[in-house]
Design goal:
CATH topology of the largest domain: Porin
Structural class: alpha+beta
Distance between the termini: 122 Å
Number of domains: 2
Number of helices: 3
CATH architecture of the largest domain: Beta Barrel
Oligomer: single chain
Bound molecules: 2-acetamido-2-deoxy-beta-D-glucopyranose
Shape: elongated
Largest sheet: 7 strands, mixed
Strand content: over 45%
Order of helices and strands: HEEEEEEEEEEEEEHEEEEEEEEEEEEEH
Length: about 425
């Protein structure tokens, strides 16, 4: 009886050990602090060639998967990226590189290394050790755990990586998962359809998800042969609307990151700024009108990928007849209030806290400011209140002076 009980316990312990090994990974720094915790299922679909043909093999993370301590990192000194490396089998591994900003962290790259010499996994394969990598859209607000139960697909050359049942957090401060959660888009889309947004599931925390917060302000400058032709600082938010596979219409709003890669060009009549981050790109085109002495944003186009629930997999939209961000040549345009730039029925860009100047930029810095109408309207109220107060003070003062004079006059006559 006791023996059977013990065997049950042992079996339980072994199973628990397997479950733990196969799904929860922890990276610990030299001082014993946990910096990354991750729990996920992952499958790899690998295309490879044998001497005669090409094969496809699907592998899941086996129970022997374990953190590779020497390749994982909590970030040392100036190095702020953190790395989770998980090895399994005969020379296979997956490496997640985390990067953070002041408000969020993200898996900037995912690398999968596999060993085609391991014929127990890749029967009859030719070729030895291989590597594939790509960027991911795994991103969460700092001090929240990232959750994604739905499948998240990352495509690489010859490899497709499918994550599911993911809970992870990097840049941990308290050795354990945060009580707050950032839910991935795939999960949000299925648990919170737009028609019922008020029914926020009880598992959702109140943590600000990256897309509901105002975007961080990025700074851009573009130079041509005559020096700088564009200076801009602005926060950007992308809003796309798409139809889903089951014929509903959904919107997705997300913040464009603060430090995208960017490029641009200057010529006599147009100034262009291209921003690229992950699968999203934005192209701004400014023109100037010599007869009115004004420049403005005339063209804005966008390309981005759609979430998995959408019918297509990407969206491209452009509008070349805008008249936004308009100011006098040689001066800068500024708007603190949010501005919505309509591109098409399916796409728009919200611009926050913008200051921009295109074409002539004397001294390579912003010239005098022309404030947008929205800001002027917002400023009008304090000005009116201020003027009214000043008027009141003046009236009181005059009344007092008149009063004083009268009483003086009174004394003199006595
Ligand atoms: C990790 O995932 C497994 C399976 O989904 C679950 O049983 C386990 O409780 C999770 N562990 C943590 C620490 O969340
Ligand atoms: C992808 O696989 C093909 C054959 O299946 C091979 O020729 C090619 O080199 C592989 N590409 C990479 C980047 O591994
Ligand atoms: C990490 O250690 C494993 C064996 O434990 C070794 O095979 C691998 O080459 C090491 N990697 C690095 C980058 O040192
Ligand atoms: C790749 O697999 C072969 C065969 O199993 C093994 O001999 C070799 O050590 C593996 N390579 C690595 C880096 O583990
Ligand atoms: C590997 O190749 C041998 C002969 O070339 C063949 O008989 C066998 O079926 C192949 N195995 C697989 C899994 O394709
Ligand atoms: C990397 O991911 C992007 C976006 O998902 C995709 O368009 C691109 O084809 C991927 N790269 C490779 C080499 O598969
Ligand atoms: C995710 O976890 C749930 C519950 O543990 C399980 O039923 C489901 O099969 C898992 N999905 C995948 C793709 O592993
Ligand atoms: C969740 O976030 C809120 C606001 O940022 C914070 O006040 C609260 O302490 C957090 N809760 C936990 C459990 O971390
Ligand atoms: C233009 O951008 C570069 C790189 O971001 C920066 O080093 C430089 O100071 C900027 N120039 C101006 C005039 O803002
Ligand atoms: C996004 O676009 C949709 C459709 O044009 C609109 O109803 C919604 O208010 C927009 N949301 C934001 C935050 O701009
Ligand atoms: C759309 O499909 C998802 C799963 O594919 C389902 O959960 C959801 O209820 C469907 N919505 C509608 C309105 O049919
Ligand atoms: C641009 O302007 C300069 C001087 O203002 C002129 O020399 C040049 O030919 C112009 N370039 C084009 C393409 O119009």
């Amino acid at each position: 009886m006791a023996a059977r009980y013990n065997r049950g316990l042992l079996l339980g312990a072994v199973l628990l050990g397997f479950l733990k090994a196969s799904s929860t990974f922890e990276v610990i720094d030299d001082s014993g602090k946990t910096c990354i915790l991750a729990n996920f299922s992952v499958q790899f679909i690998v295309e490879y060639s044998t001497s005669t043909k090409s094969e496809t093999q699907t592998i899941s993370l086996p129970p022997d998967a374990h953190v590779l301590k020497n390749e994982s990192s909590c970030g040392k000194g100036k190095e702020v990226s953190q790395i989770l490396a998980v090895g399994f089998g005969h020379g296979h591994s997956i490496l997640l590189t985390f990067e953070k900003t002041s408000s969020s962290y993200a898996v900037s790259t995912l690398k999968f290394s596999y060993n085609l010499s391991d014929t127990s996994v890749f029967p009859n394969a030719t070729g030895g050790e291989k590597e594939a990598s790509n960027a991911t859209d795994i991103k969460a607000a700092l001090n929240t755990r990232y959750r994604c139960l739905n499948k998240n697909t990352i495509s690489m050359a010859n490899v497709t990586v499918l994550f599911s049942n993911v809970t992870l957090e990097a840049y941990l401060t308290r050795n354990t998962f945060s009580g707050n959660e950032t839910i991935c888009f795939e999960d949000r889309a299925t648990t919170v359809p737009p028609a019922t947004t008020s029914h926020i599931p009880t598992t959702t925390s109140l943590a600000p998800s990256p897309s509901t917060k105002d975007p961080d302000v990025g700074h851009y400058n573009v130079s041509g042969s005559h020096g700088i032709c564009l200076l801009a600082s602005m926060g950007l938010q992308v809003n796309i609307t798409y139809s889903t596979k089951n014929e509903t219409i959904n919107s997705q709003v997300f913040n464009f990151p603060q430090n995208p890669s960017y490029s641009g060009s200057c010529d006599n009549n147009t100034v262009t700024l291209n921003l690229i981050s992950g699968s999203t790109s934005l192209r701004f085109q400014f023109v100037q009108n010599a007869s009115t002495d004004k420049y403005f944003l005339q063209g804005l186009s966008m390309n981005t990928s759609l979430p998995s629930e959408a019918k297509g997999n990407k969206i491209s939209a452009g509008n070349n007849s805008l008249s936004a961000l308009k100011a006098t040549i040689g001066k800068s345009y500024r708007c603190v209030a949010e501005e919505n730039v309509w591109i098409s029925e399916n796409a728009s860009v919200n611009i926050f806290n913008v200051q921009v100047q295109a074409f002539k930029i004397p001294g390579d810095k912003f010239g005098s400011v022309e404030e947008c109408q929205l800001d002027e309207n917002n400023m009008l109220i304090p000005i009116i209140v201020g003027a009214a107060l000043a008027g009141l003070v003046l009236i009181v003062l005059i009344a007092y002076l008149i009063g004083r004079k009268r009483s003086h006059a009174g004394y003199q006559t006595i």
